[in-house]
Automatic annotation (TrEMBL):
Keywords: Cell projection, Cilium, Flagellum. PANTHER family: SWARMING MOTILITY PROTEIN SWRD. This is Flagellar FlbD family protein. It comes from Terriglobus aquaticus. Pfam families: FlbD. InterPro entries: SwrD-like.
Length: 83
């Protein structure tokens, strides 16, 4: 979910997977795959940046780095050595 701001200033969480396209007409309008349209204060660039950051955070959680895999392996070996 990415946080956006409605024109009245209220925060709104949007499921980024449902965004079909974003337009500046002149206000930024998100069109969802359901056909619903949401008008937000953020620019198209901000919507893009927040969506990419959200997707990157998902990928970081899904595929740990080599360092964290090494730490987990080392901890496993230490625990096995104590048994």
């Amino acid at each position: 979910m990415v946080e956006m701001t409605r024109l009245n200033g209220h925060a709104l969480l949007v499921n980024a997977d449902l965004i079909k396209h974003v337009e500046a007409i002149p206000d930024t309008t998100l069109t969802l795959i359901t056909g619903e349209k949401l008008v937000v204060l953020e620019t198209c660039g901000e919507v893009l940046a927040r969506t990419l950051a959200w997707r990157a955070s998902l990928l970081r959680g899904a595929w740990p780095t080599a360092d964290s895999a090494l730490l987990a392996h080392t901890a496993f070996q230490a625990a096995a050595a104590q048994d």
